[in-house]
Amino acid sequence: MTTSLLNSLLRALLRWGAALVFCLPLRHRSHFWARACGMLFPLLLLAQLLDPLAQSTTLWQQQLLLLVLYVSFFALLGGMIYLCTDINKKGAMYCAVWSLLIAQCAYEGWCFLELQFARYGHPLNMASPWAVLVQLLSGAVFFAAVYILLARQLPYKGEYHIGPRQLFSAFFIGILFMVQAAVLDNFRAEQFPRSVIATILIGQFYFITLLYFQSELFKKSAMEKEMNALNLLYERQRQQYQVARQNVQIINKRGHELKVQIANLRKLSPEAVPQERIEEAERAARLYDANRNTGNEVLDVVLTEKSLLCESRGIQLNAVANGSCLGFIEAGDLYALFANALDHAVESAVQTARPECRVIDLLVCVRQGFVVVNIISPLRPPEKQANRSAQYELKVIRRIVQKYKGTLTLEEQGEFFAEKIIFPLQK
Hints:
By secondary structure, the chain is α+β, with helices and mostly antiparallel strands. Helix content is 68%, strand content 9%. It has helices at 3-23, 32-55, 59-84, 89-119, 129-151, 164-189, 194-267, 275-288, 297-312, 331-350, 388-403; strands at 316-321, 359-367, 370-378, 407-413, 416-424. The termini are far apart. It holds the Pfam family HATPase_c_5.
C-alpha cells in the first residue's frame, strides 16, 4: 500500500470518527452501531477510488478532484448522521460541516507533527504499522476531547434546531475553511514559508471559532424565544385564575339553585312529576355540584374546574388534598402549578386506550416537615410523550417548583406516570 493511499484511507477514517463524535450525544436510531460501521465502507471505498486519479492528473485537475472529494465526503457524512440518529436533514447537514472541519483539523495537526520530525532530521515512515497506530491513538484522544468539550455542548437539549440562516452561514464558513485547507495542501507540497502556513492555520482557527460562536448565538436566540413563550403562557395562566374562580362560583350558585328546585318538585304529588324525571334531574345537579373543600380557595377552584373537565371526558379524578399547607404559594402560582399538572394528567388519560385506566390520583399532604404533592396518571404512548404542549406544561411546573425551593421528580411506574413535588414546609 502506497503512502498516499494510506494517507487517503486515514483521512476517510478521521472523517468517519468525527461524524461519530457528533452522533453520540443525539438520540440513536435502532441498530446504531451497525449503521455507523456500515457507513465506514463507502467512505473508505471513495478514498481508495479517488487516490489513483489524484496521482495521475495535473494541478488544476487535482483541485477540481479535491472539490469533488470534499462534496462527496460531505454528502456521505450527512447521510451517516441522518441514518444513525433521530435528527432532521438540516441538523444532519450542519453536523456534517462540523465533522469535515474537525477531521481536517486532526489531519493537519498530524501533518504538522510530521513536518516537525522531518525538519529536525527524523522523518517518519508513514507506511509503518507504528506510525499508523500512533495516528489512530492520537486521533482517538483528539476526538474524545472534541466530544467532551464541543459535541455535547452544541445540541440544545439533545437536539439541533437549525434554521436556513444558520445552515447557510455554516456552509459559507465551511467552504472558506476547506478552501484554505486545499491551499495549505499546495503550500505544503511546494515548501512555502512557514509564516504563510501559520497565517492560514490561524485563519482556520478563526473560522472554527466563528462557527462555534454562530452556533451559540442561534442557540441563545432559540432559548430566548422559548423563554418568552413560556413567560407568556405562565402569565396568562396566572391571570386565568380570576376567570376560573368566577366561573366556579357561578356553577356552584346554579347547582345550588337547581337542587332547591328539585327539592320543591319532590313536595309535589307523584302524579305531577314522575319519579324517574326527578332522579334524572338530581343526577344532573350532582354533575355540576363539583365544589371541593380542601382548606385552600385556589386549590378548590382548580379541583372544581378539572373535576368538570374529567367528568366530560370520562376520567375519574380522585383527590385527597390538604390545601391548608399550601398557603405560602401565591394564588397565581398555585393555580398555574395545579392547572398544568392536572392538564398534563388529563391529556395522558385521554390518550389511554383502556377506559378502566383513565384514573387520576392526587395527593396533597404534609410529611416530616415537607409539603408533598403526588399526581399519578396513565402513562402516555411513547410517540406522544415529547409533544410541545406536554413540554410547556412540565416547564411551567418546574419553574414554579424552583421558585419555592422545591424539587420535582418524574417517574414511570408500570403503566402509570407519577409527578412528585416536595416543598419545604413554610409557616
